[in-house]
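User: Okay, second chain of the day. Same drill as before: sequence in, structure tokens out.
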Amino acid sequence: MNGSRLEVMNHVEKYVVKKLPKFLRPIDQNWQPADFLPDARDISFFDEVRNLQERAKELAYDFWAVLIGDTITEEALPTYESWLAGMEGVNQQERSGWTQWIRGWTAEENRHGDLLNKYLYLSGRVDMKQMEISTQYLLNDGFDIGTAADPYRNFIYTSFQEQATLISHMRVGAIAKKQDNPELAKICAKIAADEGRHAHAYQSFVTKIMEVDPNEMMLAFSDMMRKKIVMPAHYLRELGGELGATFTHFSDAAQRIGVYTANDYVDILESLLKIWSIDHVPDLNEAGEKARDYLMKLPDRLRRVSERLKIPEHQYEFSWIGI
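Assistant: Same drill. Structure tokens below.
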């Protein structure tokens, strides 16, 4: 990384240190998975599990596909931590603002997969071994999100992706609530709240960089949108399947039940354009202006594309769902 980029990362790091108490919750005050699940030490444990399983029976096939896919995505956290820790400008040997953020973010995110995994196990609706195989595949296969070790591109990606996971968990919770499953609705709401807070953090990192290095950040934003923001589980597969084969079916299920759609992708882009005031960023050079022009026209272009998309009605048979 060139000297100016390193200076920018050091500059933003001071902001990160100051904001850590806002971006992360104290561990001793934070929720834990055990807060939302039956306690095996209680005499009522088996009754509570039977009730949980009865309510789980009301949830549709596509719903389970999305919930399991979301869980596998959350379970691949070791990949995401190592990717962020490998960014240029992050020194893993020091207890810096960046390492504190990455480790704190990881510690909070780790609870999501733990909680969802245990819920799925107790639900009695999931072939856990098949799900675990997909999780191991995803960890083994990794991902390629087009950011390399560039922090600017990484922060664009996380700003977008955390917003997407907020939407997904929030809507899964809303469906659970409509299906008279308040326990699962509460689980999803808690996870969504974390994702929203994390999205705000990453979006603020971009804001701070845009203030001091607008051209390079504008170019990074444009580059990431040209490549398209891929989901972290885009290599998702099942036993015997090809790399990424299951992700398409998972994505189709999410679109069918309205959890995450092509329109949501465009909505997130439009929200980021507003959050970062892209149309008012000053002091851009010619390349920066071209990048801005591309970004400002992109939502309308993507809306036209999304209107032509057709989602398959066929429900793919996932090996994970043991109904």
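The mean pLDDT is 95.

User: Thanks, on to the next one.
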